Amino acid sequence: MDILISGASVAGPALALWLTRYGHRATVVERAPALRDGGYAVDFRGEAHLTVLRRMGILDAVERHQTHMGAMWNVNEAGKKIVAMPADLFAGDVEILRGDLARILYDATEPTTEYVFGDSITAVDQDADGVTVSFERSPARRFDLVVGADGLHSNVRSLAFGPEEDYLSYLGLYAAVFPIDNYLGLDHTGLTYNPPGKMVAIHSARGNTEARAVFWFGSPPLDHDRHDVDRQRELLERAYEGVGWEVPELMRRMRLTDDLYFDSISQIRLDSWSRGRVVLLGDAACCASPLSGMGTGLAVVSAYVLAGELASELAGAGGDHRAAFARYEREVRAYAEGCQRSAVGVSRFMVPENRFMAWFMNQNYRLLPYLPWKGLMAKSVRKTASAISLKDYGAYEVTRPAGPAPRPRPSGRAS
């Protein structure tokens, strides 16, 4: 089958890897002109996440690029360290920068996958035999299936399922992150400062050769164009106006970067993840939000199941993609909802509402390593991350994609 995937971050390339192993031809279209290098550090935890990475053949590469972060320190406005938060309280089994993970997935799939960067889907017209897809720049093409793996603000979901506001649940926070040089000389660690209603952090990255500045703040929903970076800079500056510590310096550096991520912390809730020949994957289908710490693991697990169920269904006589989509959703939905539940209520933990709550949380941070429920917290998170039984779809793998020779790659393909 010819399958179009919208989105080249994590879920899309992960799905492409499995589809080509099962003999399909995958095309990935991405609005950005190239792979996005920025973003958060993301975690994989528990046996389900690690099993999928191992079966994909990328676990070793992910481990080679892991952050090896140690304790994070809470500081006061003067920069004095108040309390350390041990890494084992919050980190997963493996932590990696999202940009590094995207590069690993791209390198693993590029030889067998057609990538089209700098383009976007404008229309999806289904019929009994396939889908005609129109693009902003490329000529219209026919595909057997279309997968929306294009994130919280999925373009495919809007085209096939309706407006975003019908499915988005805002959790009361906004987040921003951008790369900076490691001007504080942090060594596999980070610093966090919690003024009321806000949090700002700086942590080292890529073997201390650089760093990330991360911001979380509470706010009513903001009316802005998410593609307007100048407006995003303005909103971030306004939210942190008058805040001390390193914030003025970080705002100066933020004005100079062309790699700013800024978005609401929200979840996606849909009654169904498929419509005809269109199916949603990862954040587009069931975004749990960064508060859960499991969105990336959920994405790779979901990609594994979707591709496997398609392979299983289409290997039989009269295989029907609709049956495969239904089984994929049955396998993953309860797992995804558990990941979403883990994020609800975390906002007060991440961003204390007032000075008293900030003080209260600092006291808890001090005591947490010595409290009997420390292990229970970590165990609960791992239990949520592992709460899915993975089928083995290995019998459907082929050595090379089936069908005719690969088509010529369009000029928009990444170099």
From TrEMBL:
Per the record, the domain of life is Bacteria
Stored SUPFAM superfamilies: FAD/NAD(P)-binding domain
Name of one Pfam family that matches? FAD_binding_3
The record's annotation in InterPro entries points to: FAD-bd, FAD/NAD-bd_sf, FAD_aromatic-hydroxylase
The UniProt GO MF terms for this protein read: FAD binding
**Record-annotated FAD-binding domain positions:** 2-337
Quote the PANTHER family the UniProt record gives.
Answer: MONOOXYGENASE, OXIDOREDUCTASE-RELATED
Q: What is this protein called?
A: 2-polyprenyl-6-methoxyphenol hydroxylase-like FAD-dependent oxidoreductase
Q: Which organism is it from?
A: Nonomuraea jabiensis
